[in-house]
Every structure is written in structure tokens, then in C-alpha cells.
Amino acid sequence: MSVVSPWLRGQRKHELVELAIAAGVQDYEHLRKIDLEVVLDQLLRKNEAVFSKNSRFFPFYIRAYSPVKRERAGSVTSDGDAKAIRVRTTRRATRAAEEVASTAASVASRTTPRRSISSLTQPIPLPPSPAVVADVIDTSTAELRSKVGNLWENAGIVERAEGLRDSLSSVVSIEALVLAIEAFGLRSQVLPFRYAFTIPAIAGLGSSGWPVHLPDLFLMLTSSFWSPVALWASTSLLVPLFFAYFFNLTLRNNQSPLESSQPIYRFDPLAFNVVKALFTYLVYGQNVNFGGLVGRETVDTVRAAVPGGSTGILIGSAVGALTSIYEAILRK
Fold first, then answer.
1. What is the 3-state secondary structure (H, E, C) of the chain?
2. pLDDT of 220 strictly over 50
3. Are the C-beta atoms of residues 103 and 15 closer than 8 Å to each other?
4. pLDDT by residue (tens digit) across 276-324?
5. What is the pTM assigned to this prediction?
6. Model confidence over 22-37: pLDDT tens digits?
């Protein structure tokens, strides 16, 4: 492998690109600087008769005709030939030296506008055909699509979405969502947010003060918090769970009445929603106080806090019951 000309190594990338355009190099856009040096060196060495007449490549051939090569040429040829070669070499070196001097002067005095003007005067490389342009666009589009697909797969969004869907696609998840909605509404009533402090304004960002509100935890020490919470937890969670545990119709699923098996659920979701709806109707709809255990004020607080009141709780029970029936049908 021949050594690349020091003159080519001393050129910048944009200057090598201009030389490649002048030499007719194809596909130079994708080549690095070192690759351009190698390609131009090989091309100029193989086509000396063509490019040596071009003033832009004189510095390359001046370096190529070093004293070592002249001595090698003199040892092969005769004395007369050696003298003729020395004469031609001297003339060529003189002419090349003049060209190098003029070229160096033009390079030293060259500015950015002149360089841009010279680049405009050079022929602009055009694609050989529209089909090549279409192939380049298709290739770029495929690479972009592949990178986006790899990024999507590496992020794990599909797996996480499928995992979330599997977690929510159950009766237990629906029951938990209904209870969470009721609990959130009750929290806003019995444990409201109070003003705590203000985040100071930041002059550099041009922001104003930001007031911060936090739950009033001192209310947890009063009966105004625990009475509504205990009533809602009893009618919507504890009592229905008690009956759903002992009246578990999933215990004998696909079994004869005399055989026992592991239940599908430890608490029957259908029995849970039926008992929840029944106690909601009695306590919040008919004002049954169970011998004075439930106060009227507490009932009104829970009824006003839960979204939709007693009707909202009944709708949540109906949704849970229908979901449990639908799941039981799918299991058959």
C-alpha cells in the first residue's frame, strides 16, 4: 500500500471535496477525510497524464517527483535519456514551482466569500437518475423507521401497557377502582386541604409566589373525621367482605354439591356487591340507624361526600355485580 501524499494529508475536508469534484470522484459525500485522501492519491497516480496538466494538482506531482524517484529513473535509462529526463524534470519543476507560488499566494489571500464564489463556479454534482434519488429516500426512510422501532422496543412501552391491561382486566381491579373513587370523594369532605405556606417568587424566572395547600391532619384527631370514615368503611367494605367470605358461591365452581374445592376468589365478588348495595339502600336511602349506632349527621356527611351520593354507591355496586357475572359466564 503506497503512502498518501503529504500534500493531500495537509488539505482540509472541504478542500478535498473540491478536489474530488474536480477529479470526478463518485460518491464522495459518504467518504471520510482519510478515505478521500486515499482515493484521490490512487486516482492522481494512475491518471498522471490527465491531471498533471491541471494547475490544481501541480503540488501533488511536485511531491511525487522526489529526488529518490529521479535517481531510480536515471539508473534504469541510458546517459542520454538521463540527461533528457533531467532537462524535462528541471523545466517541469521550474514551471511547477511557479504554479505553486501562484497557488500559495492565491490560497493565502483567499477569503470566505472568494471560496464560496469559486465553489459556485464549479459544476454541481447531480444524481445520475431519479431512480437513484428514490432509492436514497427509501433507504433513509427504512433506516429512520428501524431506529424508531428499536427505540420503541427498548423503551418497553408495549410490555408495560400490556402488563397494565392484564392488571386492570379483573373484577378485583374494578372493585378497587370503584372504592378508590368513593374514598377520594370522602377524603375531600373529612380531610380537606388547608393553606400551609407559599413558595417564594423567583425573580430570575419571572414567577410569582406559589401557595401550597396540604391536608389538615389535625382533623384525624376528631370525631368529624373518624365517624364518616368508619361508616363508609363498614357499609362499603367491611360488612360486604364479611358476607362475601361466608357466602362464597365460587367455592363449588364446576364441582358437585358434595365436593369441596379451592374457591376462585376468597371473597365472592357478586355477594360483596349485593350486600354493599343492600346496606347502602338501608343506611343512606331509608335512614336505618341500627338502634342508634349510626348518627343522622354522619349519614348526611357521607352521602354528600361520595360522588353521586347513595345513588353513586348503588351504581358502583351494580357495575361490580355485572362484572362478576360476566366473568363467571366467560369461565364456563
1. CCCCCHHHHCCCHHHHHHHHHHHCCCCHHHCCHHHHHHHHHHHHHHCHHHHCCCHHHHHHHHHHCCHHHHHHHHHHCCHHHHHHHHHHHHHHHHHHHHHHHHHHHHHHHCCHHHHHHHHHHCCCCCCCCHHHHHHHHHHHHHHHHHHHHHHHHHHCHHHHHHHHHHHHCCHHHHHHHHHHHHHHHHHHHHCCEEEEEEECCCCCCCCCCEEEEEECHHHHHCHHHHHHHHHHHHHHHHHHHHHHHHCCHHHHCCCCCCCCCCCCCCCCHHHHHHHHHHHHHHHHHCCCCCCCCCCHHHHHHHHHHCCCHHHHHHHHHHHHHHHHHHHHHHHC
2. yes
3. no
4. 999 999 999 888 888 888 888 999 999 999 999 989 999 999 999 999 9
5. 0.51
6. 888 877 777 888 888 8
For residues 100-131, one letter each, b for 16 or more C-beta atoms within 10 angstroms of the residue's C-beta and e for the rest, the string is beeeeeeeeeeeeeeeeeeeeeeeeeeeeeee
CA-to-CA distance for 296 and 283, rounded, in angstroms? 10
Give me 31's grid cell. Answer: 467518504
Instruction: Please check whether residue 273 is in contact with residue 241, taking contact to mean a CB–CB distance below 8 angstroms.
Output: no
* 238: phi then psi, degrees, rounded to nearest 5: -70, -55
CA distances from 65 to 16, 72, 95, 185, 232 (A): 21, 11, 13, 92, 100
Mean of pLDDT values over 39-58: 82
pLDDT at residue 114 above 50?
no
